[in-house]
Amino acid sequence: MTGTISVPVVSKAGVQVGTVDVDPAEFGGKISKQLLHDVVLMYLANQRAGTHHTLRRGEVAGSTKKLFRQKGTGNARAGTKRTNKRRGGGTAKGPKPRDYEYHLPKKAVRAATRMAILSKFRDGEVVILDELAIGAPKTKEITGVLKAIKVGKKTVKTVKDGQEQSVEKDVTLFDTSVLITTAAYDENVYKSGRNIDGVKILPATELNAYTVLKQKRLVLTRAALDVLLKKEPEAAGESK
């Protein structure tokens, strides 16, 4: 990617107070879909518990005696009742407990995190907040900020006087999933937004490719953007 990306800066009231020019080179300058795919798969695999357990035919209860003789009964040949062909029998080639965890090189994981952030800038899915200071944990304050910032419009069909009409409605951050990124861990911000459905809050140093891509919008404070531009974000989510 070449050139710069201009991103508007808004206040908590949703009013634009300036713009910021972001150089794609600060985030690697390119996006590899394959690398992003590999890192997301790694992250999801590392979250698996791997506690699935099935019983094979040698582990289920029941006699190993042949049900009836091989010939002369007129029935089909049958062996033990532990076979997977019969109800209550064992599972053929069923899963056993295993560890799904694996790791890609750290440089690749960090590069994927930068690519994920850059993809959000490229697609216009980043909102930069002038500041996000909250005096005490209050969900109402974060909700008010999300509802005040408009990110687009959508057409809604309504029925009035028996006729169908199309009405344009503003779409706010509250209507979509959001990743709010602060410069450092902010207890008041975290506690204010952790119970809101679709909202994830992380400091800039704990971003990872999966979390950035999963949320539809990325909200950065000015201070968080400065942290990302000065230092490569450490990739979280490499292990369980």
Notes on the structure:
With 240 residues, the protein is an alpha/beta fold. It is built from 6 helices and 8 strands; from the N terminus they run ββααβαβββαβαβα. A hairpin with a 2-residue loop joins strand 4 (150-160) and strand 5 (163-172). Helix 3 packs across helix 4 (187-193).
- Characterize the biggest β-sheet: 6 strands, mixed
Radius of gyration: 27 Å
Residues in helices, as a percent range = 25-40%
- In DSSP terms, counting alpha (H) and pi (I) runs of 4 or more, how many helices? 6
Strand and helix order: EEHHEHEEEHEHEH
Give the termini distance in whole angstroms: 34 Å
Query: On the 0-100 scale, what is the average pLDDT?
Result: 90
Content-based structural category: alpha/beta
How many strands? 8
- Gross morphology: elongated
The parts where pLDDT drops under 50 for at least 5 residues are: none
Instruction: Work out the strand percent.
Output: 15-25%
Spatial ordering of strands, largest sheet: 2-1-3-8-6-7
